[in-house]
Every structure is written in structure tokens, then in C-alpha cells.
Amino acid sequence: MNRCSKAIIYTENLKNNIVEIKKCLSPQTKLCIAVKADSYGHNAILTSKLAEEAGVEFLAVATVDEGIELRNAGIKCNILLLSICIPEEYESLFKYEITPLIFDLENIKNLSDAADKYFTNNAKFKVQLAVDTGMGRIGCYPDEAGEQAQVINNSNHLILSGMCTHFAVSDSLDKENIEFTNKQYEDFEKAIENVKNKGIDPGICSCSNSAAIMNNKNMHINMVRAGIITYGYYPDDITKEYLKSVNKDIELKPVLSLETKVVAIRHFKKGQSISYGRTYVCENDTDIAILPIGYADGLLRRFSPGLCVTINGKNYPVRGRICMDQCMVELGKNHNVKLWDKVLIFGPKESGALNTADDLAKIGNTISYEVLTSISKRIERVIK
Hints:
By secondary structure, the protein is of the alpha/beta class. The chain is about 30% helix and about 25% strand.
């Protein structure tokens, strides 16, 4: 554990975001929140408990172990597994009541055979059919949906409880991408209709991710799946400013702040170099603060040059390459920074940080998702 560095979870901001998401939904629309990857680095158990208290009907995980962790923590609501699991994990699906996505006749047969061995009564195990409408990842094609749903419901112990697909570019306002999202939705509707034509109830159907939740209410069907917006960040082109321009006032608040401490202050002369590769040479006599946080903690190497951190309400630049466990910050000669002062890497306004995960993402040519999920397990999560 990196004892100087902490990730602070602002629970009131998380509650706020769930309320804001629900404002986008019709009363009959169910909400699924993605808590995979330890809730995007935010502590899956905490997030799941708050979501359950707020009436969220589904939680989405990426691995069976993530689902088991939630069940062992007392989570009762529906858990949806978004990735394909291996046969050795089937028994855990049944035991912990984790609903898998399934497609492909061979996989359906394998799961059905495992269910036949596990269930000794007439129990039915719920599964959801994944449909690939253009993501190019998992799922059957829309014209295969009816047949695969029929195979599922003809098995002894499996029953179709829902269908889902995933949008590839719903967070883009590019005309071509908007048309692609519309085509994905139309194809998903066709898949649902193909299932209905077999006399099968398609169950709970979802396709809307964070962007579509806020920008495509016509695509909500009867459940939506919220990811990054749960944690206070707007997806790509679907910004707060854009939403206001189309008369949608959705006030999301970042939930997590990443902080550390100044563990040393050193005096450097003009011309001295800093860190590996000597990529930064001091332009003047200056003071350098040493921070005990690096890329093994989630402060990605590519954030420097460009990254500034907040100390006592002012931003200071990181200098030289970020190391595995440490980084260096230039203070100049006229500063009020002291040993053990708190350093904020990013966070909500309440934390005192002057940067958000979006700011770091721009520096690193990535997205807020990666910034958040990169925070390692050795960073303690503290609930505020």
C-alpha cells in the first residue's frame, strides 16, 4: 500500500450522479450501472451498495470474480456479466446468480449442458442474448437472434431474460457516426423483432450507454447501462455545454480525487537534469518537490511533460519523466510549499484540485476511463 497516496471517494457526488441519470429516464426504464474494473477505480462494493440503495435494478461486471465479490459483500440486485466466461466458471454463475451474456450455438449448448448437471429441479437460469450490431466485438448478428433465442428457451434450464447490444460511436456528433448509431439501433430493433417472431419474450432489452442515455432518449427501450457518467464525466462530444445547448441540464460531479504528499524538497541549480533520460534540464535555480507516486500507482508515464499538480491552491508542473514510484514537481524559488503538504493530482472542486481526469486524459491523449481505471490497488480508497 502506498500510504502517502490516496483516492478519496466523494459519496455525495456519486449519489448526485445517480439522481441526474435517473432524470434522463422514463419511470418504467430500468437502470444498470457498470461497476466493472472496481467501478472504474472507485471501489465496486461501495458504489454497488449506494446504487442498490438508490433503486438501481442491475449492476454490470466484466468478470465472474467481480460478480462473486459483490455477492460476498451482500449485494442482492441483478448482476449482469458483460464479458464471455469460460466453462470452468459456469458453476459460479449458477451459484452466485450472475446473469451472463451469451451467443453462438456452441456456447449456448455448453452452458445448457452445465446447467443440466447443476440443477436437479425444474429451475430456470436467466441469460441475456448479446447482439452485434456494429461494435465488432461479442454477439450474434441480428438475423441470427431468433434462432439463438429459440435454442436457449428450448433447453432444460436456460431462459432468455433479456437482449443487449453496444453502441460504438454514440458519443460522437459527427454526422456519419450519428447515422451509424441510428443504424445500430434499427438493427437491434430487428433482432428483438426476430425473437418476438419466434413467440419468445425478449425480456429486458438495452443498448444505451452513457452517451445515449443523455442524448438518445428514443433508444432507451426498457433498460439503459450507465458507465462513465456514474463517476462524473461526460463522454467525448456529449459534453455539459453541448447538452445545455439542446436544453438538457445534466449536472455531473467527479466522484474521485487522487492525492499524495510532498516527501522531500530539494534545491536544484540551473543546468541540473531531472529523472530518466535527462529530458528536463532546469532553466534556473529552483526547488523541486518529490512526490511518492508514479506509473505503478496509475500516474501514467505519458502525462509528463504537460501534467501540473495542485499544492495549496496553485498548480505546479511535473518535470522529467514520471518514474515507477515517484515523480518530481518544480516549485520555483518563491513558494509556500512545505514538507508533507497535500498534493492533488486531480479531483472534483470539493477536493481543492484544479484538474480533473479529463485534463489528464487530454495530456495523455486518452480518455477519462483509462485515467480512472489505471489507479492501482496499492492506492488506498478512502470514503468521504
